[in-house]
Specification:
By secondary structure, the protein is an alpha/beta fold. The protein is about 45% helix and about 15% strand. The chain has one domain (about 10-275): 3-Layer(aba) Sandwich (Rossmann fold), CATH 3.40.50. The longest helix is centred in the middle third of the chain and has 29 residues, at about 120-150. Belongs to the short-chain dehydrogenases/reductases (SDR) family.
Length: about 280
């Protein structure tokens, strides 16, 4: 059962990357954005979500409304790497709800390669999707929260940003490391104004995208890649998107995390501790 945070009732959550990839292998496996929408809706929050893929956003809306009684979720299409679209996204949310209490920056993309192999175009794409999107969204939302004198900003990082773990994805690891630094900077800068900012740092999470990894890196062997990834975790399993979402819900709640800012909440089954000890 999810933890219900009563102070999230009627709070407005702007959530990027809300889309749910098709659940090809298991209907119970959700992505981080969709799971976050569901978990926050279960606490009574109103979700205003965006995704570049409107079909995936509509799938999340459908799943949440089917499974959460009286869920309130709106979804729109937006490319959060483009300033004009982020400005319009925030305007739509404000026109609908008049405030933004929680911002969750969830979009992310990973591409293989190191500095010698990665093209300039792929490198720039990694920066845009993983980092510039956060810069643009926080830049538009923080002034709103400042006027409100309250708000929680939650940025999705990754254990890939904590150190090298055998995968050369230099763009992804670099940007995810930078996101932690952004959370620290924003958290300290805006602390006197009643605004908190933190990073959630997931490890190996079992989402619908694992199926894509199977075809890209494991000759289509889905069960094989699930077993392989689980073997890399001290707990012996991948995490679920709902475990990530519960961390996000905790940081969204003022009652639960009022003294937490500029911090990082690692949700990785022990990977980081095992690698760095």
């Amino acid at each position: 059962m999810p933890v219900i945070y009563t102070d999230l009732q009627d709070k407005i959550v702007l959530l990027t990357g809300v889309g749910q990839a098709p659940q090809e292998y298991d209907k119970e496996i959700w992505g981080n954005g969709a799971a976050t929408a569901k978990v926050l809706a279960q606490s009574g929050a109103k979700i205003f979500g965006c995704d570049l893929d409107m079909a995936s956003a509509e799938l999340t809306k459908k799943c949440v409304e089917e499974q959460v009684k009286d869920a309130r979720i709106d979804v729109v299409k937006a490319d959060v790497t483009k300033r004009d679209e982020v400005v319009e996204l925030v305007k739509k949310c404000m026109d609908t709800h008049g405030r933004i209490d929680v911002l969750v920056c969830n979009v992310g993309k990973s591409a293989p390669g190191g500095p010698a192999e990665m093209s300039d175009e792929v490198w720039q794409s990694q920066l845009d999707v993983n980092l510039t999107s956060v810069f643009l969204c926080t830049g538009q939302v923080l002034p709103i929260m400042e006027k409100q004198k309250s708000g929680s900003v939650i940025l999705l990082s990754s254990v890939a940003g904590k150190g090298y773990a055998g995968r050369s994805h230099v763009g992804y690891s670099t940007t995810k490391s930078a996101i932690v630094s952004m959370a620290q900077t924003i958290g300290c800068r805006y602390a006197p104004l009643g605004i908190r900012a933190n990073a959630v740092v997931p490890g190996l999470i079992h989402t619908p995208l694992v199926a894509r990894l199977a075809f890209e890196y494991n000759n289509g062997d889905y069960e094989g890649i699930v077993k392989k990834r689980a073997s890399e975790v001290p707990m012996g399993r991948m995490g679920t998107a709902f475990e990530v979402a519960q961390a996000i819900a905790f940081l969204s709640s003022q009652e639960a995390s009022s003294y937490v800012t500029g911090s990082q909440l690692i949700v990785d089954g022990g990977i980081t501790a095992a690698v760095h000890n």
